[in-house]
Amino acid sequence: MKIRVLGIASGLPELGLHHSAFYVETKDRNILIDAGEGISQQILKFKLDKNVIDEIYISHLHPDHFSGIFMLIQMLYLQKRTKDLYVYLPEEVEKVKEMFNTMYIFQEKLSYKIFFLKMRKNDNIIPIENTHLKTYRKFTAKVNHKNPLISFSYIINEDKKKIIFTSDIASTEHLTNHISQTGIIFIDAFHPKSKEIIRLSDSFEGDIFLTHSLSEELKLELIQNKRKNIFNANEKDEIIF
Asked: Considering its fold, how many domains does the chain have in total?
């Protein structure tokens, strides 16, 4: 597999960085994990062909993981893409489809078909539901919003190789049963407690790439206790695995 890091910024925009997006080439398909703001610019920068992306997997609907998809869909149309595109969503499929209509990005006018689907296990791609959005429960109940509060991390398997993309996570607990035989984890370095990430690195034989900006707590922890298998993800990274 080949991984191109396209965006690592957190919810707070940072000059010179783009929001969450990872492009993964597997043996039989090319995948985009998340589509944060700036994804279209990054696709142009790295000269990815208009028909190269087969599937998009959205971890959750926070703007820094999702808002770039609207410009991406429009750009692919203006580039005259012809290949079907499959977009897997964690929740609210019909509402998302209606958002495109509201923006005048009509499916009937596009040069290609888009299939918006609710997330499910898909061959070698396994979603793991995490608790990132559960912190909204009290608020949504108080104001009577009906958001499903669903957020996923993703496992990609191929030829006995395994990569995990956590997206945003409240803790690393949901990874415990999945890290065996995993070679690489791209992990949210801002939301989980720093000691959880350090403990994960101690029990993990592969490499951990930190995304989404480091918390001050984790920065201090890594200064005091450097780890050989923890690296800062970089938007220039292309990782062959």
From this structure: 1
